Amino acid sequence: MILRFHRRALALARAARGHHGTARLAQDHRASTKLFADAALEENNPENQVSGSNSPQELQQHKNWTGDESVGDAVLRMLVDKYKPLRTGTIRTAEEKIRQGLVLPPIHDIPHPSTSNAPASPTRASEEHQPWMTTFNPPSHASTPLVRTGRISTSPSAAKPNAAPEKSSYSALKQEKRKKEIGRLGTAKESSLDYRLGKGEARPRLNPVSVQGWANLVEDRIERARAAGQFNNIKGKGQPLPRDMAERNPFIPREELLMNRIIRRNGAAPPFVEFQGELESSVSAFRSMLREAWTRRAVRTLSLDLSPSQLARLSPAEVARTRDKRWESQEQAYHEASLNEVNALIRKYNAAAPYAVRRPYMILSVELEKCFTSATEDIVARLAEGSRQVNLTSNAEVSKPRPMKPWRLRDIIDRLFSRLYPGYPQVADGERSNK
């Protein structure tokens, strides 16, 4: 595009030179003539000429823009943004560059129409002159200034003597009074602490004004407290610091770790954790009630239906297969009511708990099967204990001696005559006691 413009300008310059001549071109001071002359000089310069053979090679050195940044350019840009290049000391300011490359063209006296009779005297810009140094000089024919300025009086007599104080002054006075009161309270508190730490010694009031002064004051207070023995009863003194495994977890943010630690130390917990404790107690109570009721029912049923010898040969697998449909139908309403209460707590817990720790609802048939399986050991133990008590009772009754009735003289004579005379009637013990 630039070459086309230069060629066109050169052609126009040559045409103008052929029609009007060199003398007329030298006297022409139009801007277009100046542009044509510059284009002709640039066209004749061999350094600016681009050969047709080299132009495609130069164009092939750079790839066409595809809309995406290459990996090399992206990496270079990130490195430059991260690590700024060091300055070599040869950096020049923009003003120095402008001054060095500034070439002022010669100024010609160009006639131009003007309404004033003053001679046109072009002035050259000074290198030391800056735009903000320019001052405004009004023309001689201007009677009044175009810019009006206000008059500011600095004398104290200009203020009104009876001016009422503003609201801001009242608020400033209140703030100052409040600061003084707070300062007195703080001074009293610090004085009491100094008295207790110093054991009644009078010490001057310290008021540091720098960071180093405050650091020295803090160190002094710590040393005095240590000398007084206030650090002797610190919890965990001489023991290693407790480590939390969550501190090594890179997926837990630091602020979340500190927040959870504070909550755990204060005994607080999220709402779903509190609901979880209540839910666990309700579920365990329901299952314990169900297991105890079935254990009593199974022990009573098996004791009535089986003999002691059959109970002794009863295995846990046979006990686990024992069912009582009559008991299930009788207790179904009570079991469903209790299970509905537990499911209500589960619903409340799931509303506050995260998705990963939510719990499913409980089903009566599933809970009964768990009860039949878990109560097997209790049923076998109670049956064995019952059979052992029965055996002890029967053995005690067999081994118990029968009481002997006292013998009377008549009974002895009757027994003697019955042995001597077989035909003599013998009296039984019961009849003898009745006589």
From TrEMBL:
**Which organism is this protein's natural source?**
Botryobasidium botryosum (strain FD-172 SS1)
Q: What is this protein called?
A: DnaJ homologue subfamily C member 28 conserved domain-containing protein
Top-level taxon:
Eukaryota
Domain DnaJ homologue subfamily C member 28 conserved, by residue range, is 217-287
> Where do Basic and acidic residues bias regions lie?
174-183
* Polar residues bias: start-end ranges: 113-124, 132-143
The segment annotated Disordered runs over 105-191
